[in-house]
């Protein structure tokens, strides 16, 4: 078996104290293999965002560990976690988070330039990834000149261009219509299958989750079920919906 890119060990997050304490995550053990595309689903408030934030080093657990590429993030100071986040993780958000005054190429190149990569090389890598995600014809467009689906493609190129070990996607289709959502899910599938990148995605949408290799179901902060998908092209949406009903939405 491969060495996992991500592994959590009894990951627990408690918000607040005493009688108002909320156990948002409760002893989560999850391993994600290189090149795997994993979706996390579960009812509202079950801890999906908390899990993504802890793995992404955006917040710290109450107890338990997060290993990224074998390194325990929970033992590092904030500066070291920030450096790992910048070099080893790519984030994709629901609202794209592109910089309005920069064009697609500049948005994609900026994180690399901030990380010390020469601007010419950063722009070249940015252009290559924009072409791969189907945005080669929109390099000089600004976010306001792009559709939601196109903006998300730019955000995905930006996340990939720095060659991260892990892509974390938080409701990447949450702000898109159903056609654009399926196109973005198809692109994420391709990023995993063709370019062998590792993806952890949180989603409410069973149709989108059905493009992953594996779906992990969370409830009340615990992993309660897991489904390995055979088709990975959205065809098994009904089976995912059945599982969600079984778990209780
Ligand atoms: N900063 C915080 N302070 C206190 N409680 C919090 C905080 N963040 C999250 N929670 C609580 O922790 C639990 C898990 O929240 P989380 O946002 O991880 O759930 P989720 O599954 O992502 O929900 P949704 O699907 O609605 O986005 C919820 O009960 C939430 O109210």
From TrEMBL:
Single GO term (MF): ATP hydrolysis activity
InterPro entries, sorted: AAA+_ATPase, ABC_transporter-like_ATP-bd, ABC_transporter-like_CS, ABC_transpr_LolD-like, MacB-like_ATP-bd, P-loop_NTPase
Keywords per UniProt: ATP-binding, Nucleotide-binding, Transport
UniProt keyword annotation of Calcium present: no
Domain ABC transporter: 6-245
Gene3D superfamilies listed in its UniProt record: P-loop containing nucleotide triphosphate hydrolases
Gene Ontology CC terms: membrane protein complex; plasma membrane
Domain of life: Bacteria
Short name of one Pfam family: ABC_tran
Protein known as: ABC transporter ATP-binding protein
